[in-house]
Design goal:
Distance between the termini: 58 Å
Largest sheet: 9 strands, mixed
Structural class: alpha/beta
Order of helices and strands: HHHEEHEHEHEEEEHEHEHEH
Family: Belongs to the LysR transcriptional regulatory family.
GO molecular function, one term: DNA binding
Number of strands: 11
Helix content: 40-55%
CATH topology of the largest domain: D-Maltodextrin-Binding Protein, domain 2
Pfam families: HTH_1, LysR_substrate
Protein name: DNA-binding transcriptional LysR family regulator
CATH architecture of the largest domain: 3-Layer(aba) Sandwich
Number of helices: 10
CATH class of the largest domain: Alpha Beta
Strand content: 15-25%
InterPro entries: HTH-type_LysR_regulators, LysR_HTH_N, LysR_subst-bd, WH-like_DNA-bd_sf, WH_DNA-bd_sf
Shape: elongated
């Protein structure tokens, strides 16, 4: 059994195609097919189902796949460990982030600082919802992510809270709620509200709190950026639930109402704590945790 056979097998599964795998690896397709056939003969089982329009792993292939990935990860980690000991950290890290971070998190500065310290490490950046980012971190597809939290992280994921602030109601100055300074969450049971989409930490916090209060919120508007929600509320289009810092940024156009009891919005760094983690990934987690320490809250 050779490492390249495992590499070819994993890539074909990921691409669901011999042709795409060959293109990604810059190898001739017949070479990939021949090596995987050798691997199948050695194991005595077919690993790939070639009968459909796309290539899929067989039951045996599904069983072999995590071991193949672990073997490739171990070899990559061994190489990077040697490079780390010699002072030349190489590799690639992928960082995920929610769309709106607010003023407290300067992600470009964080990435620039890491690049300055480790110029040979390639950095990738992707944006998504918190739910999908946490799933990707747990699966080892993302090395570090900035996510919204509305509860405990999934197993195998460590977190460090970096933003913890109040969520508030933002309305136009002529809205009936503009006469209030605080309100119980139940006061929104009959009002259409505006919120971030499902899968975000803020939306989960709102829905969990509403469930605890005995109702399901009627979300009339969704936007991935809380600043857009604030602008919609300022135009009199409804009630927005946003972080307090966002409401402050639009204070001239909005009236802010606090929740009683308080409702919190939390952003956190998330990283993998189980499974193989390479030196470059460990380095970016260390850098981020030092760059974005846990905040003092106003609880």
């Amino acid at each position: 059994m050779e490492l390249r056979q495992l590499e070819y097998f994993v890539k074909v599964v990921e691409e669901a195609s011999f042709t795409k795998a060959a293109a990604a690896l810059h190898v001739a397709q017949p070479g990939i097919s021949a090596q995987i056939r050798k691997l199948e003969r050695e194991l005595g089982q077919e690993l790939l189902d070639r009968s459909g329009r796309t290539v899929r792993p067989t039951e045996a292939g599904e069983a072999v796949l995590p071991y193949a990935r672990a073997a490739l990860g171990a070899v990559s980690g061994a190489r990077q460990a040697v490079e780390e000991l010699t002072g030349l950290l190489r590799g690639q890290v992928t960082i995920g982030t929610v769309t709106s971070l607010g003023p407290s998190i300067d992600l470009p500065a964080l990435l620039a600082g890491f690049h300055h310290d480790h110029p040979a490490v390639e950095i990738g950046l992707t944006a998504d919802t918190s739910d999908r980012l946490l799933e990707a971190v747990a699966g080892g597809r993302i090395d570090l992510a900035v996510v919204g939290l509305a509860g405990e992280p999934p197993p195998g994921v460590g977190v460090q809270i970096v933003v913890d602030e109040a969520l508030v109601v933002a309305v136009s100055h002529d809205d009936p709620l503009a006469a209030r300074t605080t309100l119980a969450l139940g006061a929104l049971a009959d009002r259409p509200i505006m919120s971030l989409p499902r899968g975000t930490g803020l939306r989960a916090s709102v829905e969990n709190a509403c469930a605890a209060a005995g109702f399901r919120p009627h979300v009339a508007f969704e936007a991935g950026d809380p600043n857009v929600l604030a602008q919609l509320a300022a135009r009199g289009l409804g009630v927005a639930v946003v972080p307090e810092s966002v409401a402050r940024a639009h204070a001239a156009q909005l009236h802010t109402v606090g929740f009683r009891p308080a409702l919190r919005g939390v952003l956190a760094l998330a990283w993998r704590t189980e499974g193989p983690v390479g030196p470059a990934a460990r380095a970016v987690v260390r850098h981020a945790r030092a760059h974005l320490p846990e905040p003092a809250t106003d609880r």
